[in-house]
Design a protein that fits this description.
Elements lengths: L6 E3 H13 L9 E3 L2 E3 L1 H12 L3 E6 L2 E6 L11 H14 L4 H11 L10 H4 L2 H10 L7 E6 L5 H10 L4 E4 L13 H10 L3 E4 L16 H13 L1 H4 L1 H12 L3 E6 L9 H9 L7 E4 L1
Parallel strand pairs: 6-9, 6-10, 7-8, 7-9
Antiparallel strand pairs: 1-5, 2-3, 4-5
């Protein structure tokens, strides 16, 4: 914002930030394909936080949402020299483009990030639209997945779902709350909705937090999950059948919880129970 004279539209900020991160070896922000192309949930949240603390002002106009930098304390000089250089390069290369041409450039150069765009057909030609269509993943076969969000950003997580053409996300946490940004129920549900993935919370299949406090070894997890299969899963068989019904309708369903290691997460118990039901015609993949 400081480099771009303190005022940008929401779309411009996202696109400039995206182009800046393309120059970074370790990207400061991750992005997903969204309604107007590349979009970072984290960057959007950061803007709201900066606004809360009086650094930004947000205004809604007939021409869209505008961000204005109120406090400018020489932030550019706080950057690493290499990042400063790359940011100034972005300003030099793209700073004179109109918003439409800026969006068009990102669609042409990075077509994957335009696959969810609602305006692509308005600003691209036929061959460019075909290239975007090539980026879309569509699989006819139903499939069951599991995915944990430990150690990854919301954007990386959502991209994994998109790339595997997941169309239903079943959250099997008892309490769909997380201190990690993006993974509490409301935020995760909105993120999924924005990329055409249905979010369903199934708390009946969760494990109460008190039972997870003394887990130090894989053996501890194995004892917990053995009890879980004999109690919670048996008592909530209807929830298993609900997921099975989604699969029978041809859905590609992902079960989600926190842990990265599927051997240390009860979602694997749910998945394996689904794989043991009669007449299955779907496969299981760990994301």
């Amino acid at each position: 914002m400081s480099v771009f004279d303190g005022k940008l539209t929401a779309k411009q900020l996202q696109k400039y930030l995206f182009l800046f991160t393309r120059k970074q070896a370790v990207k400061s922000f991750d992005f997903v394909p969204y309604h107007y192309g590349c979009f970072s949930f984290q960057a959007n949240q950061d803007v709201l936080t900066l606004t809360k603390y009086g650094y930004f002002n947000i205004s809604e106009t007939d021409n869209g949402r505008f961000y204005e930098l109120i406090k400018n304390d020489g932030f550019i000089n706080m950057l690493k020299p290499d990042d400063k250089k790359k940011l100034l390069e972005v300003k030099e290369q793209f700073g004179k483009l109109t918003q439409t041409n800026l969006i068009r450039y990102t669609y042409q150069k990075y077509p994957y990030y335009a696959i969810k765009s609602t305006i692509a057909t308005d600003i691209l030609n036929g061959s460019e639209i075909i290239e975007i269509e090539r980026q879309k993943r569509h699989f006819a076969d139903k499939q069951l997945f599991t995915i944990g969000y430990e150690g990854i950003s919301l954007e990386t997580y959502i991209n994994k779902l998109i790339i595997n053409d997941v169309n239903v996300l079943c959250d099997v946490r008892k309490n769909a709350y997380s201190q990690k940004y993006g993974f509490s129920k409301k935020t995760l549900e909105l993120a999924c909705k924005g990329v055409d993935i249905e979010y369903i919370h199934l708390p009946d299949l969760g494990i109460v937090s008190d039972k997870r406090k003394e887990l130090r070894t894989q053996a501890d997890y194995d004892v917990l999950f053995d009890e879980y299969k004999k109690t919670t899963l048996l008592n909530n068989f209807a929830s298993l059948l609900f997921i099975r019904n989604l699969l029978d309708k041809g859905k590609r369903v992902a079960l989600t919880c926190f842990e990265n290691n599927p051997k240390q997460c009860h979602r694997s118990c749910v998945a394996h129970s689904l794989m043991q039901l009669p007449n299955i015609d779907y496969e299981l993949k760990m994301l």
